[in-house]
Amino acid sequence: MRWGSLERGDAGRLAELYAAVEAEDRTGEPHGVDEAAERLAHPLIDLAEGTIAAREGERIVAFGYLPVRQSAEGGKHYLRFSGGVHPAYRRQGLGRRIVDWAVRTAPVLSARAFPGVDAELHLLAAHDNAGVRALAERTGFAVVRTFADMERPLPGDPPPLRTPDGVRIVTWSPELDEQARHVRDESFRDHWGYVAHTRESWTSQITGSVNFRPESSFLALAGDRAVGVLITHVFEARNARREERQAWIQIVGTLKEWRGKGVAGALMAHALTVLARQGYHSAGLGVDVDNATGAVGVYTRAGFAITRRHTTYALPVVQGEARDEAGAGVHE
């Protein structure tokens, strides 16, 4: 087994590993080749230092992925770690080795990007994935938050469309993209784990992603000013496995001063109506269960139900230099 970093040419091999993990764990998050290629080309990832991979012949059998998130507003830098081990290679210590690598590497990457700023390493685990949860707890991570996936069938019974006075809903366009980013950032500013988007991160992750669907994304305008936004992504690999067309509502946000006036509900009702017309069989979204804005209730009233829960684990990061064994390039 050879250890090293992921490379730009690994998209096909990484997609194969994602598929094997999905077949075993039913994560609901398989990635196709295009999505894997996008992750490998992500502007926030340093492949040489921010990834690790175990290879058996031409196959990737385990990997870790640690991008440096784009901002540290609020005095804290959050790093979100992800990874996976092929089912045939589990219980051989690979997962522990990758988590240990992330714990050693995060302080170096964080200090380089935001020196002197408090940092925190995050790891997401599905509630029903006992192995990942146990690994997180054994390596010192603590539970900090619960998130949920929610889904609803389409067309179903669409929620009533009641647009607030003075507000109109329009389809996303490039001319409105900067306003969409602004609304997202302002509406999420008081949310747990908030990270503002730069122009580059917004484009690469959201409206420039291969998953973005502009025709299914909308803004609520008061006059010419955006006060709400709804962004839709479609994950083709996931849909192929599910054998249905599902639209994933990636972002729903309303400016703070417009909350409680029906903007989010109007955006959701409009989007669900359009998505049904476009031939989607279901809609899904992710939500912070502990969100003080009552988002779970908003989505429940729109016909969504929780289908899966996830736990976010966190580990404080002390910035500094990693030990020599950190990083890739190790062989066994």
Describe it for me?
The structure is a single chain. The chain is of the alpha+beta class and 332 residues long. It has two domains: 2-140, Aminopeptidase (3-Layer(aba) Sandwich), CATH 3.40.630; 149-308, 3-Layer(aba) Sandwich (Aminopeptidase), CATH 3.40.630.30. The chain is 32% helix and 29% strand. The protein has a twelve-stranded mixed sheet with strand order 1-2-3-4-5-12-6-11-10-9-8-7. α1 packs across α2. It is globular, with a radius of gyration of 20 Å. The relative contact order is 0.18. The model is unreliable at 322-332 (pLDDT under 50).
- Tell me what portion of residues adopts beta-strand conformation: 25-35%
Question: Could you tell me how far the N terminus lies from the C terminus, measured between alpha carbons in angstroms?
Answer: 6 Å
Number of strands: 12
Largest sheet: 12 strands, mixed
Radius of gyration: 20 Å
Tally of helical segments: 10
User: Major sheet: order of its strands?
Assistant: 1-2-3-4-5-12-6-11-10-9-8-7
The low-confidence runs, each spanning 5 or more residues with pLDDT under 50, are: 322-332
Summing up helix and strand content along with how strands pair, one would put the structural category as alpha+beta
* CATH hierarchy class name of the largest domain: Alpha Beta
Which word captures the global form?
Answer: globular
The CATH topology annotation of the largest domain reads as Aminopeptidase
The CATH superfamily of the largest domain is known as Gcn5-related N-acetyltransferase (GNAT)
Helicity level:
25-40%
What is the CATH architecture descriptor of the largest domain? 3-Layer(aba) Sandwich
Protein name: Mycothiol synthase
Keywords: Acyltransferase, Transferase
InterPro entries: Acyl_CoA_acyltransferase, GNAT_dom, N-term/lysine_N-AcTrnsfr
Pfam families: Acetyltransf_1 (PF00583)
